C-alpha cells in the first residue's frame, strides 16, 4: 500500500533481460540497511519487490527489482533505460501520514500526454486513456500517475487533465514530461469497488 507521495527520485543504473522479464538496478537515497529483501517499493507507479540491495563503490545506495511479463505489458517498465529517473515511494507503514490517497501500486495501464501548458505558477497536463479505464476517472477525484497522487481537474470522454505545482515538478519526473509521453496510470481503488458493486446491483 502506498500514498502517491514521491519520497525519492531514483536513477536507473542497469537494465538486464532475464527469463521472466527484466531486472533493474536503481540508485536511491534510501538506506539499503533499512530495506528488507522482499520489501515493496513503488517504482514509477507499479509496485515492485526488492530482490537485492547494496552500496556502490562511491558510497551510493541501490536496490534491484524484477518486472515480469504482465508488468512490462501494462506499464512503461518495458521502456526503462539506464540514466532514466523514476519516482520512488516505499510502502506505507502504520502511523505514517497519509498525504495523498490510498494507492495499491497495481497499474491499470498507461495514459498519453496530449497537451502540456506551462503557466507562471503551475503546469497543465491533459491525458488520453483507453475506453476501458475512462469511466473510473472523475472530476475532482484522485488518480495516480507515474506514482504521483494527483487530483483530476476535468474529465470528459477519454480525456482528463491535472495541474501540477512547481514543488511537484521539482521533486518528481514531471518537470521533464512532454506531449506524447506515456505515463503509468492507476485509478482510485474506490472507483473500482463502486463499479464492481454497480455490476451486481444491476444484475439484481
TrEMBL record:
The catalysed reaction is: 2 6,7-dimethyl-8-(1-D-ribityl)lumazine + H(+) = 5-amino-6-(D-ribitylamino)uracil + riboflavin
Gene3D superfamilies assigned: 2.40.30.20
- Cross-referenced SUPFAM superfamilies, in alphabetical order? Riboflavin synthase domain-like
A GO term, aspect molecular function: riboflavin synthase activity
Output one GO BP term: riboflavin biosynthetic process
List keywords of the entry alphabetically: Repeat, Riboflavin biosynthesis, Transferase
* Protein name as annotated: Riboflavin synthase
Amino acid at each position: 500500500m502506498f500514498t502517491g507521495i514521491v519520497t525519492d527520485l531514483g536513477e536507473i543504473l542497469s537494465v538486464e533481460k532475464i527469463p521472466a522479464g527484466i531486472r533493474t538496478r536503481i540508485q536511491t537515497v534510501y538506506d539499503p540497511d533499512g530495506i528488507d529483501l522482499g520489501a515493496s517499493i513503488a517504482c514509477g507507479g507499479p509496485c515492485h519487490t526488492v530482490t537485492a540491495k547494496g552500496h556502490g563503490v562511491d558510497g551510493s545506495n541501490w536496490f534491484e527489482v524484477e518486472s515480469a511479463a504482465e508488468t512490462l505489458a501494462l506499464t512503461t517498465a518495458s521502456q526503462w533505460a539506464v540514466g532514466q529517473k523514476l519516482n520512488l515511494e516505499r510502502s506505507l507503514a502504520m502511523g505514517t501520514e497519509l498525504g495523498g490517497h490510498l494507492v495499491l501500486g497495481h497499474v491499470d495501464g498507461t495514459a498519453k500526454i496530449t497537451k502540456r501548458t506551462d503557466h507562471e505558477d503551475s503546469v497543465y497536463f491533459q491525458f488520453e486513456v483507453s475506453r476501458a479505464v475512462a469511466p473510473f476517472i472523475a472530476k475532482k477525484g484522485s488518480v495516480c500517475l507515474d506514482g504521483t497522487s494527483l487530483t483530476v481537474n476535468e474529465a470528459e470522454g477519454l480525456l482528463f487533465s491535472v495541474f501540477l505545482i512547481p514543488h511537484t515538478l521539482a521533486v518528481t519526473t514531471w518537470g521533464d514530461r512532454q506531449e506524447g509521453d506515456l505515463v503509468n496510470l492507476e485509478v482510485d481503488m474506490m472507483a473500482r469497488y463502486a463499479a464492481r458493486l454497480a455490476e451486481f446491483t444491476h444484475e439484481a
